[in-house]
Amino acid sequence: MKRLLKTTAAVVMMALGCVAFAEDGRSIMQKVLDVKEPDFTHSLVKMDLIEKGGATESRTVEEYGREKDGLESAVMIFRSPASVKDTRFLQVENKNAPDDKWIYLPSLRSTRRVASSEGSKSFMGTDATYDDLTTRTIDQDTHELLKEESKNGYDCYNIKSTPIDKSTSQYAYRITWIDKKTLLPIYTEMYDKNDKLVKKLTVEKIEQIQGYNIPTSDLLENVQTGHSTRLAITKIEVNKALPDRVFTQSFLNTGK
Q: In CA terms, which of 13, 45, 103, 254 is 20 to 30 Å from 201?
């Protein structure tokens, strides 16, 4: 992915330097994607929905994750409070096709597919939309290395990612700070189609668990509404094999 800069003949050398710099941005993002992750995860997560004034609604979510043949699947089961208990969500990454998403709503006792047209809707009242959960391939965006700087105590690469096809993203671009040591994104800014900052995602804590660097606390803030969502892992198991049935619509319907 390259971001080309229009220049005059008088600054050809500068242009060539900028193109090389942008190619470095792509290679860094590829390294981020290549970081080894657990084949399986099973975690308990505390989800806090935080109003602008500070009022907080806390939820407990059980999560299952799997990476198989380079593709990821995830299941979320809301355990509390009563208003969302037993709501279940499944996302399956596909090769060369959009992710499949389904949600089970206990009030309706049925599972339905989440349509692509619902991408901009909030996921379960959080600050994440369904599109925020969607997997993007590296070549859906250009990646420009803007600079290298310290951010939140980490020595980082600062990379701007811009959708090649603007219709595939709700954002005009994203700017991400990548920790050089772990190659984890530790801070991301998301800008709307008017080039205004709309969301910030901060990794608040990283823990090494069985040799893996895992973000265990994240804060997603909508700077335009003042609302935010914090996710904190309170318990996690890694590489404990999970049966295939967990990542199916049948499991979503029954919870077992």
A: 103
Closest among 147, 219, 218, 224 to 192, alpha carbons compared: 224
Q: Residues in the chain with pLDDT < 50?
A: 1-23
Distance between CA atoms of residues 192 and 167, nearest Å: 12
In this prediction, residue 24 carries a pLDDT of: 87
Only one residue has tokens 């299952």, namely 64
- What pLDDT score was predicted for residue 6? 35
C-alpha span between 222 and 228 (Å, rounded)? 6
| Predicted model pTM | 0.88
Domains, the chain, in order of start with CATH, read 9-254 (2.50.20.10)
pLDDT for residue 222: 98
Q: How far is CA 228 from CA 59, 172, 173, in A?
A: 14, 21, 20
Of 218, 217, 223, residue with least CA distance to 191 = 223
Residue at 21: amino acid letter: F
User: CA 19, CA 44: separation in Å to the nearest integer?
Assistant: 44
